[in-house]
Specification:
heterotrimer; A alpha/beta (about 500); B mainly alpha (about 375); C alpha/beta (about 350); A: alpha/beta; Rossmann fold; 2 domains; 7-stranded mixed β-sheet; 6-stranded mixed β-sheet; 20 helices; disordered C terminus; C: alpha/beta; disordered N terminus
Chain lengths: ~500, ~375, ~350
Amino acid sequence: MHALIGENGAGKSTLMKILYGMQKPDEGTIAVDGEQVTFSSPGDAIARGIGMVHQHFMLADNLTVLENVVLGGEKLYGIGAKARKKIQEISDAYGLGVRPDALLEDLGVADRQRVEILKVLYRGAKILILDEPTAVLVPQEVDALFDNLRELKSEGLTVIFISHKLGEVLKVADDITVIRRGTTVGTADPKTATTKQLAELMVGSELPSPETRESTVTDVAMLTVEGLTLLESGASGAPLTTAAPADPSVTVTVHEEAATGRKLLDDISLTIHKGEILGIAGVEGNGQTELIEALMGIASPDTGVITLDGDDISKTSVRKRREGGIGYIPEDRHRHGLLLEAPLWENRILGHVTEAPNSKRGILDPKAARKDTERIVREYDVRTPGIDVTASSLSGGNQQKLIVGREMSHNPKFLIAAHPTRGVDVGAQAQIWDAIRDARREGLAVLLISADLDELIGLSDTLRVMYRGKLVADADPATITPEQLGSAMTGAATGRLEGTEEQPEDGDAR
Amino acid sequence: MMKIDKDKLIIGAAGPVLALVTSFVLTVLVLLATGLDPIEPIRLMIENAGYSDVQVLIVNQTGIYYLAALAVAIGFRMNLFNIGVEGQYRLAAMVSALVGAAVDLPGPLHILLIVIVAIATGAIWAGIAGILKTTRGVSEVVSTIMLNAITTSLVAWLILPKNFGVQPAGSNDLTTGQIAESGWFPGIDMGDGGQIYGFTFVALALGVVYWFVLNRTRFGFDLRATGESESAAQASGVDAKKMILTAMLISGGLAGLAGMPILLGESHTYSLAFPVNVGFTAITVALLGRNHPVGILFSALLFAFLDKASSNLDVSGYPKEITQIMQGIIVIAVVVSYELVRRYGTRRQQQKVGEELAAGGAIKTDKEVSA
Amino acid sequence: MGIASAALALSATACGKSSNDSGSSSTTDSKAVKAAIAYDIGGRGDQSFNDAAYAGLKKAEDDLGVKGAEAEPSQGESDADKVARLTSLARAGNNPVIGVGFSYAPAIAKVSKAFPKTTFGLIDDTSVTAPNIANLVFNEEQGSYLAGVAAAKASKTGTVGFIGGVEVPLIKKFEAGFTQGVKDTNPKAKVLTQYLTQPPNFDGFSKPDLGKAAAQGQLDKGADVIYAAAGLAGSGSIEAAATAGKWAIGVDSDQYNQAGLASYKDHILTSVTKDVSDSVYNVIKSVKDGKPQTGEIRYGLATDGVGLADSNPAYVKMTDVTAAVEKAKKDIVDGKITVKTAP
């Protein structure tokens, strides 16, 4: 098992793309089993026994596991009993525990990942490439995944593993390669190396820590949310209810609550004070996205009141809210944070088109915007040859730094930071944390949503756990462990996490 | 940095050039396949374009295509496909001609009234599609196609003599009545060549306005942002529905203006012989011009050239339809070549940025300065 | 901006030369009469109006030794394009220059002033007049009236159909005459009227499937004689009526003798003829003879410019029908019946 680590933009993804035949190298050779090969398409790579598990799963929700696995590989074992037998065989051999007939949309993230792995194995892969497989998993699931991977290894398969999380890498890898700016800068032996050494290799700086020790929390409430409820409506809800009568025995049991206008947000109440970072933990898809959208004004909640700095903003538009001082680091920066085909300086305007220095009285001021973009690039260490390149040509980490810089440039009162360091390298991570911490010291209120539990625990002043649209538990980040948090995220624990004292529902944490 | 800008220009031009070359080659092949000399018609067309009267026709037609293509382009810039430009153009020309013939005002006011009625008619007609899209989610492609069909019937009904139309004595034509001379837009007399419609210059001025609004105003930024990524625009505070409706209204208003050069400068009435298909050709013009005001100007000029310079090819024994074949091929070639060039451009830029960063070409950041 | 001045410069540079100059030299050296026709939308090959005009030109070429020229319009053109076309034809020494269709009226009004020595033929329009314009018009309503008489007499169900190609005033003349003829003959008869398309959609003159569908609908409603004034689209109506074993009435030329319709000809009761080709021929001949036609040249029943064809033997055998038609014709020529030109 070989781990590949490096900063974002260091060339990991490019290297993987070349190995998987998605991109052609200009020079150099690849050898598989001592034999030199060239790939011109993923098909060639698959034929050579290389399989790729992407960071974003490539599965069809409305098909079963069996169908998903067989899709595109019909020629191998057909689509019937033979395929089913083969899937069962692989699943048993590596302890994947996959049920061929389960509908994919009913599976959790970890199960889906196993389906992806199975899909690759089904096509006869001997070398597996996993692109940041742990980014979306809770600690328990990570351990289970590593067990699976060890199983694969013991069966003689090779695993190439890309990650940012150095602790994990040390735990599971047999060999580590560090790359920086397109070249190999070193290799390490996981038995002797420490995370500190690895990080230094990666960025040439010290390992950052998300911890914020001194508290800056004030008792001035900046954002209060009361009784926020959002019902599922329209397109996504309808098919489920109509599907129910068609096959009641299966569907009804699976979609017990989906059938009845599911509550995406269920009576959410919270208060964030000036200088406070409130962290929300939860497995993805439990209402975090909806909460952000409701706070931003993108989704209109069915009930509830949102107050920002004393003003009721429940009914105001997105633009007015942004002008009123809400900063937004979206969870999906490609969809919500950037215009990928537009140059950086236009991206700097996005979301703040009505504010200085971007425009005056309805007329854009490109000169001022460009100048300010250059400032952001400098201050936030955005690695780019210029501000006229498109956002899509930057690496993920640099894109994120640009967004953080942009949002911080307008002195927000309240910042929504959704997965602020997802897919961001260690160096950029530290800078983003610093930026958030600095602003917090000056009285910024932050809502932090993250799948990285270390980040959540380290950065937050208060922690809440979200499960099925509800805030089900809260915790003190000073004492909680990632494992405890993880179990609450799966709904196993509610109330106040730590000690034995019972706290009713989601009463005020402090 | 300069290098990337130059690249951008080359890549920007590569799409249209590729499309034009492809369609040119295919047209030549069609001519060869039908046993005709492929070079002679082109020579004839170029020769035709040397005559002043043909040039005036070309310039006038360019103005018409330009207006209609701007209408299409503003929709394209935010991913709205206004196929209804044709209908908006026809209805607006008809209604404004009716109003223009019915009133008698001093010069500039008369013209202004006609123009405003045209803008309003086009905007309202396109606005119907906008409202259908924002309230009921009806695709503007479907609704504008249907509105085109409704336009045909509506205009045919309105122009009946028993309604608002006029049938001049001894004529088999139907018109909306003649607009008094106070409602004629003065043109530039080119002597033997004819007259350049004054409204052609209004069209060009609107191109400048189009550029300014799109690139230098908040509204334009919101519009472009919506076109590039609706989700990002929405998160940035753009009210998508309002934006769709506004864009449709502007598009329709511009489409309404497309009839003005002829109405105010030549026919002074809407008759059964009023030019059709302007709105459909404009879609290709806008595509070829990459929705950019200067690009559209060139493609409008090209299409006007193809139309007018080919008009007496048949006298020399060549089918003038070859220009229609060419225009048709351009549509397909444009779509394909733009996508190819776009992919190539993105890949190339990513590569370049990577290379420049590796070579230390990045802007010096604070961190590096302090390090 | 620079764009505007560039456009100006473009046209300014070539100001001295216009395409019209190129042909002026040929005016002098040609002794032979050169005649030109500028077609209506659809051009040559439309099996109808334009083809009839071409037939006239062809006849002039064969009989009179005239050199003919033709020019077709392009889609979506404006009056300016027509002006340019007529001008270049006139400059090239063609005389007469004939505009096929009323849409040439505004253009001919302009061009005729620039070429006072050239005769311009204008078909279907009298709104534009000048000493050198020959307005060639037809009393389509009179021919259609006779068709109405024949239809009313031949119908057994008392229901007849009229199909108009495109709803324009010209075709309404056909409808008006036909309806009047039917009603005058049998006041109780019912006339089903349908137009295939509305302007500016001229498919109704060119798409037989439209005519076929419309005829089918009228047959279903009990019509047993169908008169289609719809150019090429009318052949679809004829096909439908013939297939159903009912009567069809053709238009413009004697469609009984049209090769393309040979398999249905037994069911083509008669055709309303409109002698466009003769009118074109006559203008050319008048110019060649040095006595150019001018003003309104009307082709009616009296001069056989319009009429009813009697090529179908079955029609000739229906003596009661032919008698009624002959009587109506006489009444119209004598002025006892005035046929309306609008429904």
